[in-house]
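Thread: "does anyone have the structure for this chain?"

Original post by V.I.:
We have the sequence but no experimental structure in hand. Need at least a predicted one for the grant figures.
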Amino acid sequence: MTAFLTPGACDAVLFDFDGTLADTAPDLAAAVNQMRHARGLAAAPLERLRPLASAGARGLIGGAFGIGPDHPEFAAMREEFLANYAANLRIETALFPGIDAVLDDLDARGVRWGIVTNKVARLTDPLVKLMHLDTRAACVVSGDTTPYSKPHPAPLLHAAEALGVEPQRAVYVGDDLRDVQAGEAAGMATIAAAYGYCGNEVPPSQWNASYVADTTATLLALIQHVGKAA
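Reply from O.Q.:
Generated one for you, tokens below.
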């Protein structure tokens, strides 16, 4: 059942990272195009790879080479991709325009916020530090922090526990269907970040999210609404 928050009922906000807080697609695409270049292939257009960025190595290798995790070469290609990406984590990566205002608002109101991503910790932690978010985020949960990754609710429940908040008093923001599924399974209200990559065939309006934010300005307004004193 979709959860909604009444004004004043939000104690914490959790964010997905790629495609929600940060526009990482250019650097992720560069990592997979480095693989294409090594094989004598032309670069795949960013426009084609961008919607796949939230799916990480699986999505980008699939988009660039047309293979999936069941392919015999996928595991080796995934390690090659991750090595390429780790060497150039923040060349063009930046927060989406307007996200600074969202985080500044949360900080000003004393609302704790954290990051819950499927990106593995060896990539998440240095990138969060490079973006100077490590001293601001109240928790950072990566794809390998718990035994499960999204859409399983475990990472979100782990984050709620780390923040000392009830899941029902938290909201999760993400740009992928699995983000909404994870949030719903954890008992949290959810915001579909429709300004992000949204690489699913199903549009965000049909994800069964509590709210949909078409822009970061809308996201700010929604977060202010649920965090406003009743």
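V.I.: this helps a lot. The longest helix spans residues 25-38.
O.Q.: and The beta strands are 12-15, 22-23, 94-95, 112-116, 139-141, 170-174, 189-193, 211-213.
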